[in-house]
Design brief:
By secondary structure, the chain is an alpha+beta fold. It is 23% helix and 22% strand.
Amino acid sequence: MNQNFPPQHPNQPPYPPQQGYQQGPPPGYQPPPPGYQQGPPPGYQQGPPPGYGQAPGQYQPTQQSNVPHVAPAGSPYPVLVSTMNDLPGYSAEKVFGEVFGLTVRSRDFGSNFTASFRSLGGGEVPEYTQMLAESRHVAVMRMCQMAQQMGANAILAMRFDCNEIAQTMSEVAAYGTAVIVRPIEAPRPQDTAPDEDDADDGGTA
């Protein structure tokens, strides 16, 4: 229900406040103590950590001396990324927790216009295929950067999550568990040859 109030004259004083209305802080309010600083504490860094969001070619991975490098040769990622919950032949020495990488992409008008014509004929749409492939690569690389900053050398149980934003942008997230893994040493072969003391005991019996 709409209520129509009479128009207020420009020279008329403003409406008085309602009965019981109190301007200012409520009763019992105490100002902050001396030295109180509003806002983030000293040393707080706003925004993503250093190196987050850089292109894969510009990122310089840092490897700790006491953590082995277990990423396979030829892998585009600086740490070992696996969708398994455990790695055969490796043992998880330390668990850091969840890490993630996120990117939001949108195609330009020309690519969307071309893709709309390709959708009429059916088949693969290379414009969107390339965009999603690059988005996944960037999301995984950012996840690896976050894991390396924690000191991890592997990511287990990695998963992808894709969503659509405003029907024009595509969000791709990669997440997993950052851990330190070390290869399991194979057991040493046991010596089956009898000792000299055992041979002497057997000969005198």
